[in-house]
Amino acid sequence: MVEKKYLHLSASFLTEQGVEIKQPVAAYEEYGNPVGPVVLLCHGGLSNQHAADVTDVDKAPGWWDKLVGPGNVFDTDLFRILSINAIGSIAGSTSASSINPDTGKPYGKDFPYITMVDHANFLKQVLQELGVEKLFWAAGLSMGSLAVMNLAVLYPEFVGAITPVASAPYMTVGGMAIHNCFIESIKQAEGWAEGEDNNRAVRNAVGVMSMISKVYYTHYSLFESMTNDIQGQEAREKFLTEYLAAGQEAYADGHNANAVITCLRACNSYDIGKGYSSLDEAYARLSMPALVISTDTDPEFPPQYGQQIVDGINRHYPGNANFYLLHSVYGHLACVLEGEQLKEAMMPFKKKLLAEQ
Amino acid sequence: MVEKKYLHLSASFLTEQGVEIKQPVAAYEEYGNPVGPVVLLCHGGLSNQHAADVTDVDKAPGWWDKLVGPGNVFDTDLFRILSINAIGSIAGSTSASSINPDTGKPYGKDFPYITMVDHANFLKQVLQELGVEKLFWAAGLSMGSLAVMNLAVLYPEFVGAITPVASAPYMTVGGMAIHNCFIESIKQAEGWAEGEDNNRAVRNAVGVMSMISKVYYTHYSLFESMTNDIQGQEAREKFLTEYLAAGQEAYADGHNANAVITCLRACNSYDIGKGYSSLDEAYARLSMPALVISTDTDPEFPPQYGQQIVDGINRHYPGNANFYLLHSVYGHLACVLEGEQLKEAMMPFKKKLLAEQ
Fold this sequence. Notes:
- Two copies of one chain form a homodimer.
- The first copy, chain A, is of the alpha/beta class.
- Chain A has helices at about 115-130, 145-155, 175-185, 200-215, 220-225, 235-245, 250-255, 255-270, 280-285, 305-315, 335, 340-355, and strands at about 5-10, 15, 20, 25-30, 40, 70, 75, 80-85, 100, 105, 135-140, 160-165, 290-295, 320-325.
- In chain A, strand 2 (about 15) and strand 3 form a beta hairpin.
- The relative contact order of chain A is 0.14.
- At the A-B interface, helix 3, helix 4, helix 5 and helix 6 of A face helix 3, helix 4, helix 5 and helix 6 of B.
């Protein structure tokens, strides 16, 4: 099993809004060649840093297992691969579940508002303290792709190449809408406003989010293929009910409600043009090679948003950015589940990066 | 204002599963020419029989206001138009909110399982008791379109013409999946299993369903057009949060949780082939003119399902069925909101029906 590591940062973390988070911690995993060029992997908003389990895949699958390994896209023979839990996220980095040193109690719903700029700054700070002077390549999916984009815009000299998967230049309003449903459903749960984050009502809200996610983040054609062999509407109904409800308790255990809110709001804040005179000024900073990957059925990051990034970059650096479209029944989740297509998209990009090194 | 009427049926209603519902009541509205040919309108699963307010549109808009009126598609000068609340639904027909004559208490979660065949049989019984010998035309949307389809398959001699809008020959599994999320979220609410149907947790579940519906049942491009003029992600987030949460309390007031479950499960049961040797045998019964309308962005009833109905009918009665595709940012809700396109689709169909009368 890959070990989860913790880095205690040497200084406080200052959020974009000027709030000081004391004694920040980053949870992360590390794979591959410790002295190789560094590749950063960034996880999705409801996920964590367990990108791959290179020693024991079956026990705890990582979200990009199919892309990490010897000779693979994220080549463990060549690269030092770092996968860092986002600040405010659910899996070990400082978040709503952490103890606030000022009060001795968990932050809970009072955890500071974290933006995608904060995600990028946190990653930068963590990577520096891990001794990384420059990233050879940064890749991420969904929320992680937004972190990669912001990191590259803010610190272009630090990021050698980018692969945002399921991405956009600013948070899509469609995605923001579903995020806000989830955020509101947690906030409305009885007890949440009084500080409870793990009572039945709050856990139910998180559990319902997990069910809705299984529908919203895929595509109806997935359900068609899943139920092709089931005869009769009542049998289909039973199958779907069980499939949707499965794992809800474990999901609520693993997804602190306030950390969920923190991550979804961070996504909502995302706009690479923020702080610049225009979106175009942000694109002008993206001088590194870019491979942008979208999925035809993704309702949260429809392909035209990925294409916008490519067009924006190529206006300034013709040919620097390439677009790859996944065809999938998995909708948004194709960014995790379409391993073969992702490999097909990324392998030539990796080879090109290595050749130009 | 159009008056809501109640019909107390003369006999018990026997469900498809053999359960007797005593003293059944149908809530309905009636518009137009009392002695004209009869047109039946059937509402959606989370909606009610208020299809039109022909006298005072602004006070209480009906879902097909744009199609009902003198000289309009559903011509109040010509037709006797009946819009009937589905059995088990939220707005006056016998449902989970009704008093069970055997116990003197509301049925609550013990209201019998109602199928779409029951919807059709209930409509037939109500129409007969209202003195209707034959329908000139039956039209409906979403759940109502399924009722129209089942009515026409079960009683082809009774139904002169059909216009199912947002429809399919059997419930789509994608739609079933989102229904099951909503059903489960209510069932998981604290107190529901003990018989509570209006406590905070259950109302929250219904309220969250109303928010999710605003996202799932439209299309992300709607949110893009709604927020085009709003600058900045935080302002967009605020707007969306308010838009999504608006009306939740009123929605929970108007949508009894168990009636919601009843209607969603009825949709899930839908399959016109049920009780026949094949789907094709069901199509063979649909000898009346049909206009089937779908929407390009509808995730619940994607256009290929509407096209299936048309192809199925035309295999037996070439040219009898026509397909019309709405282009809309409203997704599933186009069946209510795209009044002009619906009018364009239905007006020639109405004229043809009148000419062939």
